[in-house]
Amino acid sequence: MLLDENYYRDLISKLGLPEMPIVKVEKQDMPQTTLQKFYNDFNYITKKLLQFVFYNNIQDLISADFSNDAIMKMKNGILPENIDICLKKPFEYGGELDFSNLFLIKKRPFKTIIDQFIDEQVLNFNREKISSFSNGYELPNVLFVPSPKGIVFLPALKGFVGPGGNTSADIMTEIGSSMFVKSGGF
Amino acid sequence: MNEFILNLKKSFDDVCLFPHASIDKIDFISTMLKNDSFASIPNDYYEFLIISDGIILHSLELYGVEKHNRESENYHFPNLVDANDIFKKEKNPFMLNMILLGYWGLFAIIYDNNNKLYKLVDRKFFKTFISFKSLYEIFNHILNNIR
To answer: What is the pTM of this model?
Structure first.
């Protein structure tokens, strides 16, 4: 079933990230060796990215509510707890392993929402034929992926990073995000 | 395993280890996973949980049998049952007799009981990148890359 951009924009809103811009990307033929190299080099590049962001985007880190301890770890190229580095465009969809294709995001609750958003699309594509696979999913021809403007994802309402579930913190995040969208967003 | 964990603490002073899991709880969760068509907890992972019920080290997360409240970061670190929930719902055939143990960067870490292998698979599509015969081997591979 082909679903359009509006469906996926609604989906990411319902999952709790209405302020996250999304773009459509198409599956590319990529040599397995290149893909393997990207995956192998990812850890090294992320260390460099963390240091780059520390020296060039520290205000964004503060705005994203990263703790002082987390920010100081980044200076040494260490990924702090509950922070993740996310690909904007997956390698299999033409994404390169460079800073412009990466962004920093709090893992919980935000990165887990993005994971759920991508998982949903992959499962939608595979649901009918899943029983015939033995090594992972078939890649959809088209994916909608997150595309935040900056190198650090800034949630619409900072300071409410709940543990997940039906907590007051999550409700506040949702309200904040809705307010942000109603006011015109980006 | 004890010695390995001691060395890990020496090498990484910011490693987050958890209180050890009880044998009763590990057995309970292992049986629960097996009843849902996942693999039961492999022996060397079982030994690891007896020392530390999970681990957080930079981008590496391995889950244990308890959920842990990470108050300083305001979230709950999931347990193995929560982490595997998505596969249970989808009755995913390539996760039969396997178990998701955690994540490391772009990779998910799974144990494949059909082939008795630990595997790094890509997080989005679950294609296998590299396999290891033991928890010790996969730990070493990851730690060498984290250093």
So the answer is: 0.88
